[in-house]
Amino acid sequence: MDKVAEILAEASAEAVEPRFRALAAGEVMEKAPGEVVTVADREAEAIIARRLRELLPVPVVGEEAVAADPALARALHDEPAAWLVDPVDGTANFVAGRPDYAVMCSLVRSGRTVASWIWQPATATAYRAELGAGSWRDGTRLTRPPAPHDAAKLRGSVKSRFLEPDRQERLRANAAAFGEVSPGRHAAGIEYPDVVEGRCDFILYWRTLPWDHAPGSLLVTEAGGVSSRLDGNPYRPEAPGGEDGLLVAADPETWELTRAVLLRD
């Protein structure tokens, strides 16, 4: 567990942090409409992938590698084990000079996330989780504080960008019942720790790319929270194009309450 944390921090120090607010012309590219990638993403992923293979020689499913060859994501269900890597989570924030970005990694065995790591360079904070062994911030074990039982006191985020307009409108109307609803911080590696630390009580995601959600989902569940599909099935990392919709919450009661409020007619 410690070695992977070192790999992420060292790759970040070498390829990512020196370029924060210092990206040169030509170092930011568009890989898909509305989605950017930088040389920092690509260089960090190459460093992390090489070193992870040295640690455990299984396939590495990296965000940027999959962008170039989508078939690589099949390893998540075709192979007994695979690494998942997001070299710069929150790339848009990184490009804009906002500190809400992270470097993340997970280990998937038999389709289930068994370990995860999140490195937040701006605050030099390391989160990690291991299936059955808990969630940790640096050397401190994390337990999610209790959330309010009243929807009007809950704080959360609803990510509806990838939904059709009528469903977006329905969610916005229903979300008015909560105490505070924000657009989020546009980086899963920041938002999931916010749930665990008690700064946020729930998040509804729609598109769920595996490198974005595997690390944080394990962090939340090992701290006593819930990360489940809207039908109640626990989150499992899937190749892009799989099931949509994921509700993350502080605890089972908050998950049920939030789902009931957001999906009511």
Describe what this molecule looks like in 3D.
There is one protein chain. By secondary structure, the protein is of the alpha+beta class. It has two domains: 140 residues, Fructose-1,6-Bisphosphatase, Chain A, domain 1 (2-Layer Sandwich); 113 residues, D-Maltodextrin-Binding Protein, domain 2. The protein contains nine helices and 14 strands. It has a seven-stranded mixed beta sheet with strand order 3-4-5-6-7-8-9, sandwiched between helices. Helix 1 packs antiparallel against helix 2. The termini are far apart. The mean pLDDT is 95.
Concise account of the structure shown:
It is built from nine helices and 14 strands. The chain is α+β, with helices and mostly antiparallel strands.
Question: What tags apply to this protein structure?
Answer:
2 domains, single chain, seven-stranded mixed β-sheet, 265 residues, 9 helices, five-stranded mixed β-sheet, Fructose-1,6-Bisphosphatase, Chain A, domain 1, 35% helix, D-Maltodextrin-Binding Protein, domain 2, alpha+beta, 14 strands
